[in-house]
């Protein structure tokens, strides 16, 4: 996908090849400007590709306007009609399709039940909370039973508690409707919580596609490891089946790794402090108590600051203070070797 011409020519998407399964909850995840919304707009028909093909169940979509595609979009702003009631908003698309009144009334009743807004049908959008407005937008988008529902940052306008509640609501709606959901977000927690699969995007390309577990536990690059969750990175040299750190300590390679410079990725919750000081020598820089967890910020010779996240189980709290020397243990299964 290319915008502009000449010196102002910008390639928004570059060699994207992607297949989304029937009834899949698929998430496009990435920072602002990575191309995820552009890709969603191409599927919706708001943009046309400069090259390549988009197919829905084998049928090409290029050239078709949005209203002729079996696809509906829920926008971040919800785009509800303020002068119409909840029921009228839900019915609007069906009325534009010329559906019979009895059928429209039946579908509106079904949608109100699906999004748990029975009794709200005569209210206007201004009389609803943010979460209720989003449910109306979802009901309107689902009313004509599209084959694909596109959701463009549709939770970002909600506060944290309501956003978490709506994550579960979207999962429920997906399971009950059997419709393919394609969700765009920059929020990694949303992606991990709701998705069957995730495409992590980087500068107009897809960096990695996989299940939430695959993306989190087996990132294929430093970019993916750094974008998904909190990650520690260590510099090391692979040589003869071991990983040598700058301070002279070594770790076994978790997989066969060719000799050379590598980066190790370790999630904070997979590392631990050793009670007897064994492992990699480190010094405590700071301790942050977070209720369920305690974060230990460590200094290692020749490395970036390293975090250890320890769950505060009864009697398990490590009594260490800033400045204390400690040992850092890294189980082989916690270490991911990255080549970039």
TrEMBL record:
<keyword id="KW-0067">ATP-binding</keyword>
<dbReference type="InterPro" id="IPR003439">
    <property type="entry name" value="ABC_transporter-like_ATP-bd"/>
</dbReference>
<dbReference type="Pfam" id="PF00005">
    <property type="entry name" value="ABC_tran"/>
</dbReference>
<dbReference type="InterPro" id="IPR008995">
    <property type="entry name" value="Mo/tungstate-bd_C_term_dom"/>
</dbReference>
<comment type="function">
    <text>Part of the ABC transporter complex PotABCD involved in spermidine/putrescine import. Responsible for energy coupling to the transport system.</text>
</comment>
<feature type="domain" description="ABC transporter">
    <location>
        <begin position="2"/>
        <end position="228"/>
    </location>
</feature>
<dbReference type="GO" id="GO:0016887">
    <property type="term" value="F:ATP hydrolysis activity"/>
</dbReference>
<comment type="similarity">
    <text>Belongs to the ABC transporter superfamily. Spermidine/putrescine importer (TC 3.A.1.11.1) family.</text>
</comment>
<dbReference type="Pfam" id="PF08402">
    <property type="entry name" value="TOBE_2"/>
</dbReference>
<keyword id="KW-0378">Hydrolase</keyword>
<dbReference type="InterPro" id="IPR013611">
    <property type="entry name" value="Transp-assoc_OB_typ2"/>
</dbReference>
<dbReference type="GO" id="GO:0005524">
    <property type="term" value="F:ATP binding"/>
</dbReference>
<protein>
    <recommendedName>
        <fullName>Spermidine/putrescine import ATP-binding protein PotA</fullName>
        <ecNumber>7.6.2.11</ecNumber>
    </recommendedName>
</protein>
<comment type="subunit">
    <text>The complex is composed of two ATP-binding proteins (PotA), two transmembrane proteins (PotB and PotC) and a solute-binding protein (PotD).</text>
</comment>
<dbReference type="InterPro" id="IPR050093">
    <property type="entry name" value="ABC_SmlMolc_Importer"/>
</dbReference>
<keyword id="KW-0472">Membrane</keyword>
<dbReference type="GO" id="GO:0043190">
    <property type="term" value="C:ATP-binding cassette (ABC) transporter complex"/>
</dbReference>
<keyword id="KW-0547">Nucleotide-binding</keyword>
<keyword id="KW-1278">Translocase</keyword>
<dbReference type="InterPro" id="IPR027417">
    <property type="entry name" value="P-loop_NTPase"/>
</dbReference>
<keyword id="KW-1003">Cell membrane</keyword>
<keyword id="KW-0813">Transport</keyword>
<dbReference type="GO" id="GO:0015417">
    <property type="term" value="F:ABC-type polyamine transporter activity"/>
</dbReference>
<dbReference type="InterPro" id="IPR005893">
    <property type="entry name" value="PotA-like"/>
</dbReference>
<dbReference type="InterPro" id="IPR003593">
    <property type="entry name" value="AAA+_ATPase"/>
</dbReference>
<dbReference type="InterPro" id="IPR017871">
    <property type="entry name" value="ABC_transporter-like_CS"/>
</dbReference>
